[in-house]
Every structure is written in C-alpha cells, then in structure tokens.
Specification:
Layout: E1 2-7, H1 14-25, E2 30-36, E3 39-40, E4 44-45, H2 50-59, E5 64-68, H3 70-73, H4 77-90, E6 95-100, H5 105-115, H6 120-128, H7 134-145, H8 148-151, H9 157-172, E7 176-181, E8 191-192, E9 195-196, H10 198-206, H11 210-214, H12 219-230, H13 241-249, H14 253-257, H15 266-276, H16 280-287, H17 294-306, E10 318-323, H18 325-336, E11 341-342, H19 353-370, H20 381-384, E12 388-389
Parallel strand pairs: 1-2, 1-6, 2-5, 6-7, 10-11, 10-12
Antiparallel strand pairs: 3-4, 5-10, 8-9
Helix pairs in contact: 4-9, 5-9, 6-7, 13-17, 15-16, 16-17
Length: 390
C-alpha cells in the first residue's frame, strides 16, 4: 500500500504524528505527503519554511514529501483537494488517507456524491438567496439531498476537507479512501487530550509563548521552530501589511476579479474596502459579511498581492521537498515511468513551458514570503534550496 496524505503541517503537531502512525498501522508500506509550500489555504504565509516542515514530516513517519504549489495550496477547499489528489495520484499512491472527526467513510462519500448531484446547484442558489453564508447554504442543500445528520458532517472542518478529497479522488484518480478518526483539538480549536490544533500553536508563537507552543509539537518540529524563531525566520502576515496594502491600493476591479472565480461581484465590495481601510485587517473587516467569510476575503486579498496570472489546470510537476530511503526508491520508480519529478528548481525548464513558468512564479512568491519574516532574506531562496534527504 502506498498511502497519500494531503497536509499543511503548519506546524506539524502531535495530532499529525498520530495520523502518520495510524496510516502505517493500517498497512502502508510507503507514505507520501502532498504538503502546502510557503503559503497555506487560510490565505496566509506558512509559519515555518517548507523544507524544514517537510524534513520534520520525514522524521515523524512520512517517506516522501511533495509540494502543493501555491495556486492550489492557497485556494478554496475544492481546488486545494484537487491539487493534492492530482499530485498523490501521479506519485503512484493507492490509498488516500485523511483525518476525520467522524471517521465515517460511507457517510462522507454520500455527502461528496450529493455535492456532485445535478440538483445541488439549484438548491444551493435557493439557500444563498436567503442571505446566509455559503457554508450554511451548502449544508442545507445537502440536507435536502440526504438528511440532517449526514449534512451535519459539513460543519466539521476536517470532514469538510475529507469530502473534497473524496470528490477529487472520484473524478481524477482511483484512490481508496482511508478515513482515520481525528484525535485531539479540532481544526481551529485549542487543546484536547493533550493535543493542540495548529492554529492554537501559531497563536502561542505570535504571543511569544514559544515553549508552551513547543510542548504540543514532536521534538524534531519543536527544535525546528526554536531555530526559526532564534534566526528570525518565522513568518507572520502582519509583517508584510504595508506591502500587501500597497499592492491592493494599486489594484483595479479587473485584477481583483481574477482573484475570485465565483462571479458574484465580490471584487466591487473588496475594492471599496481597500479605499477605506488603513491596514489589511481593516480592509478584511470592512469587506466581511455573513456571506463572505474572512478566509475567502483573505485569500482574495493575498492573490491581489501575489498576482498569480494564468496557472495550469493541474500541477505540472512533482516537486520533492524531502525523502528517506523508501521515498527515494519510489522516486526512482516514478522517473523510470516518466513522471515529472522535480528535485532542483532550475531543472523545471526541462519539464516544459508550464512547469518553467510556474516554478519562476513560485520563486517570486517565496521572495514575498520572506517579507513576512522578522529578518528579511535576500531574493533567490527558491533557487538555492535543495530537497532534504534523510
């Protein structure tokens, strides 16, 4: 069994270690992680640099860590899942493992099928017309197609992601789902059974409570976090506040429209907020409504800063961040089969125009990630980085 896990590890905590252990116990010979790079799905810079997080994953049970490029990593749950599943499928995974509050694969698949039901779009529009949030409208639409208890799975963040993983897997790959009951605090919670959520750990770091934050991490990740703090490498969005606000104030409706594919005209509301707000947080608060969540607006604002331009429909390469012996064995097999494995950024040109262009943009986004760090590094970090081989 080659099991794939879609993750962010921002940072990797004890709950993530539990999942890796359970996947191994379930019979995985090799574990491949598709992990977000330097920007994550919440529309924020990753707290810790991607190669360090990937190395910690290898030390904690993974065999190979591949990068989810920024256009998929910092996107809606649907696009995030699609990018991750595409990478794992091309990496030869047979199973798709994920943490789940319910652990009920059958019920999660029922929800996934409902979202792809031909009757779903009309029901969604009907409930959105009532002025409720997209998440609430989606849950009510699914309840009409299933039942209240099944639809309630969409109120749990990891189950919601699991549903998107299952949808992507059914469309793009024949991956067998492997739901692992989640242990510890929920996605944005604090502490449960001695396990803290990644959000709670990040809040502790931001508040200067480093050792308390480290107490919820495996030792290798705790040591890495201490190193990053000591050298001024941890990233926080507020440090790039003026840079982001500057880019947004130079944006127009066409630019912002390209950052949101909903077709709901959200760019008009965000542009008005940009004209009034004197910080990114104030812009987001002015634009936020019951229907438009902070995470969605933050992603849109971040894309207004990063300017993604056109991106391929699927990730054009398998970017290696870290591997052990088993991971290297799999990489050799993938290369023999003609998979677009990328170890050095400079080699992207050999994989085609799309790969070269995306890698060049990724290098630029890594330079912008540097503006979110306490100590700003010079440009070119992406070109100087190499996979961590254990």
């Amino acid at each position: 069994m080659i099991a794939g896990i879609i993750c962010e590890y921002n940072p990797l905590h004890l709950g993530h270690v539990h999942l890796l252990q359970q996947v191994r116990k379930a019979g995985a010979d090799t574990i491949v992680c598709a992990m977000s790079g330097n920007f994550v799905q919440r529309g924020e810079p990753a707290l810790i640099r991607k190669h360090l997080r990937a190395a910690a994953a290898i030390d904690c049970g993974a065999d190979l860590v591949l990068e989810i490029p920024t256009p998929w990593a910092m996107a809606t749950a649907e696009i995030f899942a699609r990018g991750g599943v595409s990478i794992l499928h091309r990496a030869g995974c047979t199973h798709l493992a994920f943490g789940s509050e319910s652990g009920d694969t059958a019920a999660l698949q029922q929800v996934a099928q409902s979202l792809d039901n031909a009757a779903y779009p009309a029901l969604l529009r009907q409930f959105l017309a009532d002025g409720i949030t997209f998440a609430a409208a989606r849950q009510q639409a699914v309840a009409r197609l299933t039942d209240e208890d099944t639809a309630a799975l969409l109120s749990s963040p990891n189950d919601t992601l699991a549903v998107e993983y299952l949808r992507a897997a059914s469309r793009e790959a024949s991956l067998t789902p492997l739901a692992i009951p989640r242990m510890g605090a929920h996605h944005h919670g604090a502490v449960s059974h001695g396990i803290a959520s990644a959000s709670h750990v990040r809040r502790l770091v931001a508040a200067g409570q480093l050792e308390e934050a480290c107490s919820f991490l495996p030792s290798v990740m705790a040591d890495g976090l201490r190193y990053e703090v000591r050298h001024g490498n941890t990233a926080q969005l507020i440090r790039a506040d003026r840079a982001i606000l500057s880019a947004l104030r130079q944006s127009d409706e066409e630019t912002l429209r390209a950052c949101d594919s909903s077709g709901e005209g959200l760019e008009h509301r965000l542009l008005r907020a940009i004209e009034e707000g004197c910080s990114l947080e104030e812009v987001l608060q002015l634009a936020k409504t019951k229907r438009y969540t902070a995470a969605r607006l933050r992603r849109m604002a971040m894309w207004g800063w990063l300017r993604p331009a056109a991106v391929p429909s699927t990730p054009p390469y398998l970017r290696v961040l870290a591997a052990n012996d088993k991971g290297r064995q799999l990489l050799r097999k993938l290369r023999k089969e003609g998979a677009p494995v990328l170890t050095k950024a400079a080699d992207a040109a050999a994989l085609g125009v799309e790969a070269a262009e995306l890698m060049a943009r990724e290098a630029g986004w890594t330079d912008l990630h540097g503006l979110c760090r306490e100590v700003i590094p010079p440009c070119g970090e992406e070109w100087r980085s190499s996979p961590v081989m254990k």
